[in-house]
Specification:
Blueprint (H helix, E strand, L loop, with lengths): L1 H20 L2 H8 L6 H16 L2 H12 L10 H16 L8 H9 L4 H33 L1
Helix pairs in contact: 1-4, 3-4, 3-5, 3-7, 4-5, 5-7, 6-7
Keywords: Membrane, Transmembrane, Transmembrane helix
InterPro entries: Glcn_transporter
GO molecular function, one term: gluconate transmembrane transporter activity
């Protein structure tokens, strides 16, 4: 099993190096960093990956690999920037749990919910969870920045 994890780590490093080699850093810095939308962009990337792939773990690792070389360009340089980027990735990776997510089926089966009910209750609840989380993360980031 270590072989699989080593391959995943190598893949993430490769993605980070590729992203770092493109002029994407300047584009991201100009487009998002100056607007203070870095945390929101990180959250959206993690949430999009989670929603499409269904795996929080893959979403976390892939987003971290893509975002790591872009932190300073996103306005997230330094220790606190990294902390809040991790929080945004975590919030995004728990957003919109639906049929392609194994946890959706755990919740559905153990609570004796019909799939249609789970879509209405669980999927919408995880959407609300994600949006509420990123709002509070951005607010907390602004508080920390103001205090330091």
């Amino acid at each position: 099993m270590l072989h699989g994890y080593a391959l995943l780590a190598l893949l993430l490093v490769a993605v980070a190096l590729i992203v770092g080699a493109f002029p994407l850093k300047a584009f991201v810095g100009n487009a998002l960093g100056g607007l203070g939308l870095g945390l929101v962009a990180v959250f959206i990337l993690a949430a999009a990956l989670k929603t499409t792939l269904g795996s929080s773990t893959v979403s976390i690792h892939t987003t971290a690999g893509i975002v790591a070389p872009l932190l300073s360009n996103l306005g997230l340089a330094g220790t606190w920037g990294s902390v809040f980027a991790v929080l945004a990735i975590g919030a995004g990776s728990m957003t919109v749990s639906h049929a392609n997510d194994s946890y959706f089926w755990i919740i559905t089966e153990f609570s004796d919910m019909e799939a249609s009910t789970a879509y209405q209750a669980w999927t919408l609840a995880t959407l609300a969870l994600g949006i509420t989380s990123i709002v509070w993360i951005v607010v907390l980031d602004h508080v920390v920045v103001a205090l330091t």
